[in-house]
Design goal:
The protein has six helices and ten strands; from the N terminus they run H-E-E-H-E-E-H-E-E-E-E-H-H-E-E-H. It is an alpha+beta fold and 248 residues long. The chain has one domain (8-113, 132-242): 2-Layer Sandwich (Pseudouridine synthase), CATH 3.30.2350.
Length: 248
């Protein structure tokens, strides 16, 4: 096997005859998208070539988010898993590095308007859609104050936060953290450019610091609970070590 082929392999976290879960790296699209028409590498394509059979993604992860991603190995299983995600029956946990020091714990209950992809057709005569209910629980795991002036203060504060979204709105975690004024570091859309640049220049971090670390689904065929844990990507874990935090 060539070095290039090995680099394209996605770490498999779980596999049985119906389901396969992988660790998606930051920067990889799940499937073809209008986000980048010129992109030629997608998780669907890479995994299909890696295991030698078709795969169907059961859910999405944003391009910049790393972590656990579940695929079905047949259309029937894909439909059953998709319904669990749509019905908010899947338990999901994430880790993020955010600006500022949030409260020790809390729940963000803030409705979000649907964001349409460029490929989505919309009737120009349709009225604006009402925001959809969205809830995310969070817990602050660690904090740090760095001796770097980014805004008007001589130091800058950051935190490591564990998150559990109870709904699945597009960009929910990223939008919710922006809503409470603690945006994720590396988020070019909802974050703060000055802080993102500081992490890139001083700490060598150029990615969105958000990772899906755990998924729990009900197996569509056996009915058993399937728990999938994803370790942090090496560059994410290295960044936490620089800040004096342990991924555990």
């Amino acid at each position: 096997m060539s070095c290039d082929a090995q680099q394209d392999e996605l770490p498999i976290l779980y596999r049985d005859p119906w389901i396969v879960a992988v660790h998606k790296p930051s920067g990889l699209l799940v499937h073809r998208s209008e986000i980048d028409r010129h992109e030629t590498r997608f998780a669907v394509q890479l995994l299909r070539d890696q295991i030698g059979q078709r795969v169907w993604p059961a859910h999405r992860l944003d391009r910049g988010t790393s972590g656990a991603l579940i695929f079905a190995l047949d259309p029937v299983t894909a439909g059953a898993l998709g319904k669990q995600f749509e019905a908010q029956q899947v338990r999901k946990r994430y880790l993020a590095v955010v600006r500022g020091h949030p409260p020790a714990s809390g729940s963000i209950d803030h409705a979000l308007a649907r964001k349409h992809d460029a490929r989505d057709w919309r009737d120009p005569r349709s009225t604006a859609e009402a925001p959809q209910a969205a809830v995310t629980d969070f817990r602050t795991l660690a904090t740090v104050e760095l001796p770097f002036q980014v805004d008007r203060y001589p130091t800058s504060r950051y935190a490591l936060v564990a998150l559990e979204p109870h709904t699945g709105r597009q960009h929910q975690i990223r939008r919710h953290l922006k809503h409470i004024a603690h945006p994720i570091i590396g988020d070019a859309t909802y974050g703060k450019g000055r802080h993102n640049r500081m992490f890139a220049e001083r700490l060598g971090s150029n990615r969105l610091l958000l990772a899906c670390t755990h998924l729990s689904v009900t197996h569509p065929h056996s009915g058993a609970s399937v728990s999938i844990d994803a370790p942090l990507a090496p560059e994410f874990a290295d960044l936490l070590a620089q800040l004096g935090w342990s991924p555990g």
